[in-house]
């Protein structure tokens, strides 16, 4: 069976994902796969056998348990086969990473500004309480609420802008990918 035939099945891909996290017993794998895919234990065992027979998984006995682990050799072969195609997506992934970093930076900046505003709100409330004037306390709360609303609106705007930039980037990436595909 060819590597892509083995990897073409979503159940086998999920089993490999589970095993990539570390060695697991057949019972542990079966429990997850049954829950996620609703297939029987014999069907899961058959998928494990396909992975084992094609070199994607290794098995060892530990008492009465059978422990499975990923065998990376066939995955390296797949990786080598994919190498010539990386140029089609690496540039786009780099652009996406840049946009994600920009969005995170904006979020941190916004959160830092919100943290400063929260401190000011607490000071105003404490001052109003210590003066004992309910009018000042009310004014502090209103001002804080107003500030909180405008900050939330600002935060929503920057998050929307970040989302919009990511959506534009994805659209641009798709268009560029289409152009590159037509060119080859």
TrEMBL record:
> Region annotation Disordered: residue ranges?
102-184
The source's superkingdom equals Bacteria
Q: Does the keyword Transmembrane helix apply?
A: no
Q: Which Gene3D superfamilies match?
A: Winged helix-like DNA-binding domain superfamily/Winged helix DNA-binding domain
Keywords, ordered alphabetically: DNA-binding, Transcription, Transcription regulation
Question: What's a Pfam family this protein contains?
Answer: HTH_5
Q: What's the name of the protein?
A: HTH arsR-type domain-containing protein
Q: Name one GO molecular function term.
A: DNA binding
**Signal peptide limits:** none
Q: Which InterPro entries match?
A: ArsR-like_HTH, HTH_ArsR_DNA-bd_dom, HTH_MetalResp_TranReg, WH-like_DNA-bd_sf, WH_DNA-bd_sf
Q: Which residues form the HTH arsR-type domain?
A: 1-108
